[in-house]
Structures are given as C-alpha cells and as structure tokens.
Design brief:
Number of helices: 9
CATH topology: Rossmann fold
Structural class: alpha/beta
Distance between the termini: 13 Å
Number of domains: 1
Mean pLDDT: 97
Order of helices and strands: EHEHEHEHHHEHEHH
Largest sheet: 6 strands, parallel
Number of strands: 6
CATH superfamily: Alpha/Beta hydrolase fold, catalytic domain
Helix content: 40-55%
Radius of gyration: 16 Å
C-alpha cells in the first residue's frame, strides 16, 4: 500500500484534510505533515522530509503545493505521485506580496482575526461566501496556528522560488485540482502546471473557489481516489 503525505496550506492544520484522509485511507496510511518549522520553504521541506516515510505519494494544498515543489527539489526520488490542489508554480507577484505585507501588519497590530476575516471571501466561491460552517473552519484553523506562525508562513511564501522550471522534470502521476472560481491561485495557473507536467490530469471543480477540497469535497475525493490507484 502507498503511504500518503499531505501538506496543508497557509493558516491550515490537519482539519483541512479530514475528508481527503478518509478518502485515501483504503489505499494506504496517511500522514498530515506539520509545516510550522522554518520561515523559508527550504527549511520547511527539510523538516517534513526528516519525518516522512521513505517513499510516498505527495499532496499539497495552496502553500502546501509550494512546499511540495521544494520537496521535489530536495528528494524527488522519494515521491511516487503528486497531487497539487489549488496552488501555483509561479512566484509571488508584487501585488500579492504587498497584500501579504498588509495582512501581516494587521496581525502585528493585534488585528489577526480581522486579517483572517478579510481573506475569507476571496478563499471561497461566491456561492459559498455565506457558509457559516466554512467560515468557522477557516477561522478555527487560523486561530489554532496563531499570528506568529501566520507571519512566519507568509514570509516563506513571499520568498518562495519560481517552480515553473521544475515542472517539465516531474515524471510521476500528477493530479492538478482547482476551483473554477479560485481567486488566489486561479485556473490559468493550474492549466499552466497541467500543460507543463507530461501525462498530468486537470480537474476544474464547479462552484468552488480556493478551498475546493472543502467547498465541493465529493469530486475532489473521487479524483484523488482515481489518482491513488493510477
């Protein structure tokens, strides 16, 4: 059976993968990585690899995808399959970096929850913006991580490498998933990865935004189950 290693996104903990883990357990043991060690992708990936199985199928959501690319740089021979969920290979744009700096500044002024509230509408499809359950999970995971980890992870994201040159070297079975309304890592970024990774599969999830794995779990889980046995 294949071990699965799941890397969460910014302001997320294991809860973001609760449904995914349940979907994958029939195919092998699931480990949800801690991504709180270090303020650069290189250090976070190194820490995750130190505790990971010898070889594994790798999934990354959002920031977790950026970490997956660094894991591939450091230990591609250990990765059996790759799942990229609402993420991008592109580096941060100037606009994105400036927005991250604004949100970190709010958090440093004791307004962390305000920063989290401001990010929620952009994290989901407009049809799901009024979901109290999604908002409660979004806020609960952020509060569990806290403002210090938030700033640390934002710094890692800002300084991440451009992973587009890496894409052509990925030879393992790869699934790329994106919500049709993802405003953070949009569908064109997903298509860019799909087109550059030979043999990859692309799933665009209807009525979902950046949190597609939570907004529309059924099609995401179904695609991951197919990928697990590919």
């Amino acid at each position: 059976m294949t071990p699965f290693l799941l890397v969460p996104g910014l302001n997320c903990d294991a809860r973001v993968y609760a449904g995914v883990a349940q979907a994958l357990w029939p195919f092998g043991p699931v480990t949800i990585a801690s991504h709180q060690a270090g303020d650069r992708m290189e250090a976070i990936a190194k820490a995750i690899l130190a505790d990971a199985p010898p070889r594994f199928a790798l999934i990354g959501f959002s920031m977790g995808g950026y970490i997956c690319f660094e894991i591939l740089r450091q230990a591609s021979e250990r990765v059996l399959k790759l799942g990229l969920l609402d993420t991008t290979a592109r580096p941060d744009s100037e606009e994105a970096t400036a927005n991250r700096r604004r949100m970190v500044a709010l958090a440093n002024k004791g307004r962390f929850i305000e920063a989290i509230e401001l990010t929620f509408p952009k994290s989901v499809h407009e049809d799901n913006a009024s979901s109290s359950d999604l908002y409660a999970l979004h806020r609960g995971m952020a509060e569990a991580n806290g403002p210090a980890i938030y700033e640390q992870q934002q710094e890692a994201i800002i300084h991440r490498s451009d992973s587009r040159p890496l894409l052509g070297s990925i030879k393992v079975p790869t699934l790329v998933v994106v919500g049709e309304g993802d405003q953070i890592t949009p569908p064109d970024a997903a298509r860019e990865m799909h087109e550059a990774i030979a043999g990859s599969r692309l799933l665009v999830v209807p009525r979902a935004g950046h949190l597609a794995l939570l907004e529309q779990p059924e099609p995401v889980h179904a695609a991951l189950r197919e990928w697990a046995v590919a």
